[in-house]
Amino acid sequence: MKTPCPESRQPGIRGGVTLDIFGTKDDDEDWWAKWEANFDEPPTKPEAKREESAEEWEARMEAQLSAYVDPDENLSLSQEARRAISFRSDWESFWSPEYGAFEDTTRIPPMRFTFKKAPWDAMHENALQIFSAKVTATRGGLPFDVFGMVAVRDTIDHNRNIVFCRTRDNCQTLTEEHPYLVLTGPTRVVLLESPPPVFIEVDLTVKGTTDFEDEKLSSLVVPISSSSTMYSHMWKCAYTSKLSTIEFTLGHIVSAVEATISVRVTHGSWPDGFRSQFSAVTSGVHGRTSNPVYHTSVNDEEFILLNSGGEKVPVTGDGDIKLSRCVVSVDTTGLLKVHIKAWGGDNNVMETWKVFKPLDAGISNSMLDIGFCKMDVTVAWSLILYKQVYANTRL
């Protein structure tokens, strides 16, 4: 049977009893009216997927806890520990196919665009500064030996950006006088765009006499977000478990570039018995508003690069001082100050510093003289690229 083509039917003529290509009689006025009405409505677009806000993520985690954790196990796990388990299951479902294994660390290096030309979309971005992580005991008291990991995850690659990492045979002893973790990261700038949030992941254990006597100190995953702001500012957030409270001092750095700092002894040497603290202080425009969030300025907060404590300052054979961490986010509306303090047994403090103006690329150098030695301070600058890096992305 030959099917008539649509052009064979003249518009407005419904005569005869032949079937058209829709299998409907040409003179069925009601059917044609419904069919033509379909074209009066604009086509619907599928709803675009978007990243979750911190509040939405927390609500979904609570709803999914029972699906991820054995109900009998819930009785012995804190809410934060259960949420951490949920986060891992959720991460492996959503992100593992594109970003690799849950334990993978970020492959993105610092100084990404220090010496090579940055792409057009690399720019000044909002960044998260992690100033410190303080641990206080809620049961048992200090001192104790702690090992484990603290990491952050942003949306560039969703992988771990290690901030603290110690094995069981290399614990840090926390005391009432020194309750701060010795941070060793981040290894690159942490992008802070909300939504979606940055996640801080904590897995810390108190070392016992034997492996069987080790006790979980803190196991949590928390979303960190910061509302849009014109000014860099700082805040504190604390999370309590059965054994401890961990308090983070964080900074939202606006219009940021990444600075990677290195220090080398060029004349003289660092004497035995002298302790030291190397730090970076960033400044920015301080908002004069009634909003209290702007009154906690980052301008005087020290970002510790190295605190030798009672130990010898680590210096390589080439004179490089082995800083605990070296990547700092700097507000381009302000300045970066590298500050060095040294003191001996008499606690007589010697100090020197240098102020650097932020750049988009390249390096800044300066010589610092602290009396017993001279040091060359180098700052490598880089713009930030907010573009996804997948497990198979070539860097």
TrEMBL record:
InterPro entries: DUF6598
Pfam families, per database record: DUF6598
All residue ranges annotated as the DUF6598 domain in the record: 127-379
Disordered: annotated span: 1-20
PANTHER family (UniProt xref): DUF6598 DOMAIN-CONTAINING PROTEIN (PTHR33065:SF153), OS07G0486400 PROTEIN (PTHR33065)
Protein's name in the database: DUF6598 domain-containing protein
